[in-house]
């Protein structure tokens, strides 16, 4: 079995504070980590013990449907973890391993863990259709965290973590480059509107801290421009912070300690600028990490936290809008629809901004993943990513002609253009929901 992704070398792993474990000690360390996780999250054990392998998840998983690989069935993937749990943490597994579905942890097990837990997009669609509500994403998160603790982690993830530690954003953008990008976007808005619309950086005594995706300063600038126009229209005293120019939090996807560090960075940035409100930008898993774990990981937060789409939807009655003559559909990012309570807000915004809005089938919490979620945007995973995106491409094709494909998540914005091109729809225009609001706003 070939592991499709490039694993980090020992020196690279050490750069994020993890001590790689020698091969001879990996089994003991893995079992110790499972025991630690059992104490941290009893829900994981409940999910491992509850599955009856009924198969309801199989036909609902885009990973299995796209690859046809048995081990990508959510129940089968979870079984890779369950077999080890049974062998070492249950009486029947210790005494009757051969008859209880338990297996020893060995090199083949490790290889399967790396291969298949990094083909799960952690989209949680399986949980929607599971009769017991088993959330395979939580099992994947646990397995990836444990792999990281023994030093088995993709090089791509290490690079992201190091960029976050050095610059506060995934792309490693230093403050001078941030200022240059803001000046460029301000010039663009001035040329378009004739107005002085600013994107303030590290402005003290700000009421609102906006946390964008770092990609909004290079590949998705219309998203950032849409947000700046909105704040200008509302007269908001706002800023971005050069110390956390990143709504994404890749720690959720491979290392819970890294996730906590990024949440701490958010707290410090809000305190530095004096913000009582933090508005999180268009990033699916970043919103899940901020909403679900900011207080759980680091205690009560001294600010209110909202998503930019929620914020914009609440303010819709205040906006003067000119509907754009466009036929638009919406991709529901997994971590919005199944983990973040962002479902109707983007629909309200789109309907207010364009002449025709059409739904994909299925949609909302039943929507299919883009195929790039959970941070598997590595180049070496490209072939698999295209397979994982097959169901999404089929959904879009069924709609016929579209003028715009709204994809309000940074990872989706990186993945879906490649998927659409791969399946013969490379001319489809894509971008965020805030892009549409920025184009529809009538500024005076």
Automatic annotation (TrEMBL):
<feature type="domain" description="4Fe-4S ferredoxin-type">
    <location>
        <begin position="48"/>
        <end position="134"/>
    </location>
</feature>
<dbReference type="Pfam" id="PF13183">
    <property type="entry name" value="Fer4_8"/>
</dbReference>
<dbReference type="InterPro" id="IPR017900">
    <property type="entry name" value="4Fe4S_Fe_S_CS"/>
</dbReference>
<dbReference type="GO" id="GO:0046872">
    <property type="term" value="F:metal ion binding"/>
</dbReference>
<keyword id="KW-0004">4Fe-4S</keyword>
<dbReference type="GO" id="GO:0016491">
    <property type="term" value="F:oxidoreductase activity"/>
</dbReference>
<dbReference type="InterPro" id="IPR004017">
    <property type="entry name" value="Cys_rich_dom"/>
</dbReference>
<keyword id="KW-0408">Iron</keyword>
<dbReference type="GO" id="GO:0051539">
    <property type="term" value="F:4 iron, 4 sulfur cluster binding"/>
</dbReference>
<feature type="domain" description="Cysteine-rich">
    <location>
        <begin position="328"/>
        <end position="416"/>
    </location>
</feature>
<protein>
    <submittedName>
        <fullName>Fe-S oxidoreductase</fullName>
    </submittedName>
</protein>
<keyword id="KW-0813">Transport</keyword>
<dbReference type="InterPro" id="IPR009051">
    <property type="entry name" value="Helical_ferredxn"/>
</dbReference>
<dbReference type="InterPro" id="IPR017896">
    <property type="entry name" value="4Fe4S_Fe-S-bd"/>
</dbReference>
<keyword id="KW-0411">Iron-sulfur</keyword>
<keyword id="KW-0249">Electron transport</keyword>
<dbReference type="Pfam" id="PF02754">
    <property type="entry name" value="CCG"/>
</dbReference>
<keyword id="KW-0479">Metal-binding</keyword>
């Amino acid at each position: 079995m070939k592991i499709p992704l490039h694993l980090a070398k020992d020196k690279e792993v050490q750069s994020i504070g993890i001590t790689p474990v020698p091969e001879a000690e990996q089994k003991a360390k893995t079992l110790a980590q499972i025991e630690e996780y059992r104490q941290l999250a009893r829900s994981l054990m409940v999910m491992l013990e509850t599955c009856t392998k009924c198969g309801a998840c199989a036909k609902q998983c885009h990973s299995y449907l796209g690859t046809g690989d048995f081990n990508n069935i959510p129940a089968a993937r979870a079984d890779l973890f369950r077999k080890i749990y049974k062998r070492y943490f249950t009486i029947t597994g210790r005494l009757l391993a051969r008859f209880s579905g338990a297996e020893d942890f060995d090199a083949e097990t490790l290889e399967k863990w790396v291969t298949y837990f990094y083909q799960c997009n952690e989209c949680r669609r399986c949980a929607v259709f599971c009769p017991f509500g088993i959330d395979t994403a939580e099992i994947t998160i646990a397995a990836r965290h444990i792999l990281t603790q023994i030093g088995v982690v993709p090089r791509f993830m290490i690079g992201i973590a190091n960029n976050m530690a050095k610059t506060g954003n995934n792309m490693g953008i230093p403050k001078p480059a941030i200022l240059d990008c803001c000046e460029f976007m301000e010039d663009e808005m001035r040329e378009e509107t004739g107005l002085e619309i600013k994107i303030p950086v590290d402005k003290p005594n700000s009421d609102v801290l906006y946390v964008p995706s770092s990609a909004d300063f290079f590949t998705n600038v219309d998203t950032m421009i849409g947000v700046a126009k909105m704040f200008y229209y509302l007269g908001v005293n706002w800023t971005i912070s050069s110390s956390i120019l990143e709504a994404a939090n890749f720690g959720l996807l491979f290392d819970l300690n890294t996730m906590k560090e990024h949440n701490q960075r958010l707290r410090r940035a809000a305190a530095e600028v004096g913000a009582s409100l933090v508005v999180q930008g268009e990033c699916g898993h970043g919103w899940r990490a901020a909403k679900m774990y900011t207080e759980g990981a680091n205690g009560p937060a001294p600010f209110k936290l909202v998503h930019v789409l929620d914020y914009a939807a609440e303010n819709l009655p205040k906006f003067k809008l000119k509907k754009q003559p466009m036929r638009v559909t919406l991709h529901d990012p997994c971590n919005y629809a199944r983990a973040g309570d962002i479902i109707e807000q983007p629909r309200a915004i789109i309907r207010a901004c364009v002449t025709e809005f059409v739904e994909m089938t299925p949609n909302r919490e039943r929507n299919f993943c883009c195929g790039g979620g959970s941070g598997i945007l590595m180049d070496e995973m490209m072939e698999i990513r295209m397979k994982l995106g097959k169901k999404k491409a089929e959904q879009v094709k069924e709609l016929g002609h579209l003028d715009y494909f709204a994809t309000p998540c940074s990872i989706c914005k990186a993945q879906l253009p490649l998927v659409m091109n791969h399946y013969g729809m490379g001319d489809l225009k894509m971008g965020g929901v805030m892009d549409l609001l920025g184009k529809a706003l009538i500024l005076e």
